[in-house]
Amino acid sequence: MSNRKIKDNVEIYLSVLIGITVVAFSFLIPGVFWSAANFQSIASQMPILGVLALAMAVTMLTGGINLSIIATMNACALIMAWVATHYPPGASSAILVLLAGFAAALAIGLMNGLLIAVVRVSPILATLGIMTLLNGINIVISRGSSITHFPDYILAINSSSVLGIPTPLLVFFAVVLVMWIILEKTAFGRTIYLIGSNEQASLYSGISTRKTLIWVYILSSVLCVIAGLLMMSKLNSAKASYGESYLLVSILAAVLGGINPDGGFGRVFGMVMALILLQMLESGLNILGVSSYITMALWGGLLLAFIFLKGINLPGLGRAQ
C-alpha cells in the first residue's frame, strides 16, 4: 500500500472519530460542550501537548523515540526561569532567556544524538538514560521546589491574543507550519523519511545518516524549549515535575496521527487531527466528571488498541508495501 493511501486513510479515520466524539458529547453535555469556555480550555491545553507531540514525532519518523522530552522541557524551563528572575526585565533579558533555553536544548539534543548516531545506543535506552539524568539534575538544582514570579514579557504569551485567538495557539500553529515545511518541503525532511524507511540503504546511497540523526534530536530538544516557555507562561512557574503525564499522550498523539513507530511515514496534519480528538475527549470526559486516572487508562488503552490494529495490518494503519 502506498504512503499516500495510508495518509489519506488515517485522516479519514480521524475525521470519523472526531465526528463521533462531537455528536456523542453534543447529546451528553450539549450546553457545556459547545460553550466558549470549553473551547477556550481546549485551546489553552493543546499548544503545550501539541509541541511536545511534534518533538516526539520527528524522532519517531527516523525509527527512534525521545523519552526525554518532558525532562528536557523542564530542564530548559528551569534554566530560562532562573535567568528571567535574576536579570532586570527588558529586551536584553528576554534575549538571554531564549539563548539560555536554546543552549540547553542544543546540549541535550547533542547528547541524545551522539549516543544514538555515533555510539549506536538504542534510542529508547539512550533517551531513557538522558531522561533519568535530567530528572535528577532538575530536582537537585531546583531542590524540588518551583521558580515563580516571572516578568511580564513571559506571562504576556499566555494572557494575550490576536484577533481573539490565544497567542499560545498561534505559536502552536506557527510551529506546525514550520515543521510541515521542514518535513514536506526540504531535503532534510526527505532524508528523515528515508532513514526511517531504511537507514542502511540511506547510508549506502550517500546520505550522512549520523549527521541527520544528531540534528533530528537537536530539533526535538528545541521544540521542548518552546513547550517549556508556553508552560512557564501558563503556570507562572517552572518545576522539575511538570508535564509528566504528557509523555504517554505525546506518543499516543503521534501514533494515532499516523506516525509509524518504526519510522518512514506520517505527517503533521494527521497529528494535529489526533491532538484535536484527544483534547476534545479529555475535555468532554472532564466535564462529565470522569477521573483523570481513568482518562489516563483510556489513553493507554487507545495506544494498545492502535498498536493491535496496526499489528493485524488493518488497511490504512499497516506498514507501506
TrEMBL record:
It is found in: Cell inner membrane. It is a multi-pass membrane protein. Its main location: membrane. GO terms for cellular component: plasma membrane. InterPro entries: ABC_transp_permease. GO terms for molecular function: transmembrane transporter activity. It comes from the Bacteria. PANTHER family: ABC TRANSPORTER PERMEASE PROTEIN YPHD-RELATED, ABC TRANSPORTER PERMEASE PROTEIN YPHD-RELATED-RELATED. This is Putative ABC transporter permease protein. It comes from Atlantibacter hermannii NBRC 105704.
